[in-house]
Amino acid sequence: MQVTKVETVKAWVDWCNWLFVRVSTDEGLVGWGEGSLPGALRAVETNIHEIGEMLVGEDPAGPERHWHRHYHAWRWRGGAVGMTALSAIDLALWDIEGKRLGVPVHRLLGGAHRTKLRVYASHWLTGVRTPDAALEGAREARRRGFTAFKFIPATYEGLLADEAGEIALAAELMAAAREGAGPDAEIFIECAEFFSPRTIVLLDRALAPYRPGWFEEPLPFENARVMVQAQRTITTPIATGERLLSRAEFRELFEGGGCRVAQPDVMHCGGLTEARKIAAYADMHCIAVAPHNPAGPVSCAATMHLCASIPNFMILEQMEDQRAYRDRASSVPIRLEDGCFVLPDAPGLGVEPNLDVLAERPFRAHPIRERYGALWR
Prior knowledge:
Layout: E1 3-13, E2 16-25, E3 30-34, H1 41-55, H2 63-71, H3 80-101, H4 105-108, E4 116-121, H5 131-143, E5 148-151, H6 156-161, H7 163-181, E6 186-190, H8 199-207, E7 215-216, H9 224-233, E8 238-240, H10 247-256, E9 261-262, H11 271-284, E10 288-289, H12 297-309, E11 316-318, H13 323-328, E12 336-337, E13 340-342, H14 355-358, H15 368-372
Parallel strand pairs: 4-11, 5-6, 6-7, 7-8, 8-9, 9-10
Antiparallel strand pairs: 1-2, 2-3, 4-13, 12-13
């Protein structure tokens, strides 16, 4: 078997673009990957085609062999664009491997520890600024079957204008969310790097009575040493890692105890080949894994196979607002039952993009200012 063609497909979804890669072979098998990087998508696409030139004519067998070949081919390896392109190709090769052998990818990763994966509703309570709305939003999450959700209780603009007032409002919103969700639900806090080593201590004290499950990226992710210091200071677990691009970038964080939950993203950290090594590295440090999972059906399915195959899986992100479209854009809707994803058992990743549905939403340029608002100004 040989690779004959590497193609890409783009579509605009909600606030960003999804990018899929299709790797075709001379025996008719096709593998699908995904590399959706907000803002720099066209650069990722260019990198995918550069890797594709090296891949055409090769036997696709052995995703790890190809991973090392492509990773070390770059003198200036790494970076979000290059690693996202490599990740997309890697996912497609795992898909082909499973299809060729007639087994789901989780079998290739060592077998499933579980066939149902607990999920949380991500970016829940978006725009909520009153306790009444937080109460009702939390109740709605439970009505939909979720036992956990994540929300942003403070804004960057609010912290700049009135730090004490914004943290006090965050506590009011959290109290209402806890009342609406009940004592047995987990409520995760997205901090979006808005805080400092000083202010995250204030937030930790203010929210402690309501038992937040984690603070996600409370500080800028680049400085692992400061994240380590923060985790030693606050009680709430820190979750981070969605923008770290290999196991090497997790080293200082893990070895210093800078987080209690790791959040690698299979679309950026090096695909399944590298993500499973990050998970093993986290397990060695008794750190749970709750992968970042913000994009389309291919990356979601790949992440599910990863989560099923590792012992230290905690919970998986579900972009609830995008679920209906993601299901339409998939050959097989990802099953969500009683707050859990049901693991695909078809050969390969178990899903493929629905190209007719994706064609309804053509690619759009994505200026950074549209995503980051006040930070741009």
